[in-house]
Every structure is written in structure tokens, then in C-alpha cells.
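DATA SHEET
Item: assembly model
Revision: 1
Owner: S.N.
Input lines:
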Amino acid sequence: MPATRLPHDAKAGPTKPEVRAVTVSKLGLTETDHFVEVGSCTGAVTVEAARRAGRVTALERSPEKLDVTRKNLAANGLADANIELVAAEAPEGLPADADALFVGGSRNFKAVLDHAVETGVARVVMNVSRLETAGRAVEAFRERDLLDEVVQLQASYGYELAGATSFESENPVYVITGGAGDASADRGGVGA
Ligand SMILES: C[S@@+](CC[C@H](N)C(=O)[O-])C[C@H]1O[C@@H](n2cnc3c(N)ncnc32)[C@H](O)[C@@H]1O
């Protein structure tokens, strides 16, 4: 896969490359999938998902940020890909035929998860950085029988200090994974 270029920036993004790698892996995207994203912001995840999924719908409540998504998709040669960009605050605007859903923005997340259950989304991944929101999100997955696992990721980046290598740490991110239906074993779920 080519490296993801993000020449256009937006507040609250981008998701770090290491977190994107795990997120996209958990989503298990294939070329027949309709991938849906809530909160595309810089489009960092949108770009990587669009290289794997057959169809993409990206929702972003901020029209300015949606424009950043659009520009970064173009910067990665994906301007003509099968991607629909929707300026809406989910659950408004969510399609009913998603195979894989990534919740990158947490507003209304319970209603978003309700929609995932109602429409039988096979793979759902939600990334959360704030502890309290992570706790509520895990509960919401569990209450809806969506939960497979929770992974806490924390990357530290090495930099040179006095001729040696020291590390600068990023905030941890909670990657909550699951899905509707009986596909837990296929997703490698551990029944968290
Ligand atoms: C943490 S950022 C996502 C970062 C993104 N994954 C990236 O790499 O740039 C969260 C984004 O979700 C958007 N958002 C939050 N809740 C939303 C909702 N219910 N519907 C649509 N967008 C939402 C916010 O406007 C914000 O741009």
C-alpha cells in the first residue's frame, strides 16, 4: 500500500498511523465491502479504508472538515474512487447497507450503535481517547451484544537526545471492536 499523504490538516486529527493500521486491520475490509465512517475529519482513515473497500461513505458533521477529507482523498489519488462524502451528524445520513462501520467521532454514539444493530453491520470499530467516553462506549457495545474486544494502544515515538534515543508518548487510544450477528468467531472475538 502506498504511504498516506495528509497535506491538509484539521483540528482533532489525524489518527496516528499506528492506530490506523490496527483500526483498518480490525475492520477486515475487502473489495466487496461498503465501509462507513462517522467523523472522517482529515480523512486519514478514509484514505486507508478506500484502498481496501469497494465502496465508502464518510460522514462528517463539520462541512469544513469534510472539505479537508475531500482534499486529502484527492492528494492520495482517490478523487474518483467510489466514495460518498456526507455532511451530516450521525445517525442522520447513515446508510442501511454498511458491512463495516468505523466510529471515529463520538457524538450520538449510542444512536449510531443502535443503527448498526438494526441494520446488522457485521464489523464495528470505535476509537476513543477519553477514558470516561471509552467506558460508556464499552458498556454501550456490551448492552447491544456488539462487543468482541477492547484494545488499548499507546505509541511512543523515538527521537534523538544527546546522541541516544528517547521517546515521546502519545495519548492512549481505546479500540473497541465487535459487530452485529453471529460472526464473532470470524472476527477473532475474545468475548470481552
Ligand atoms: C477525533 S476526530 C476523527 C479523526 C479522524 N479519524 C482523522 O484521522 O482525521 C472526530 C471527528 O468526528 C466528527 N464527529 C463527531 N461526532 C460525529 C457524528 N455523530 N457524525 C458525524 N461526525 C461526527 C467531529 O467533527 C470530528 O471531525
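QC remark: The longest helix spans residues 63-75.
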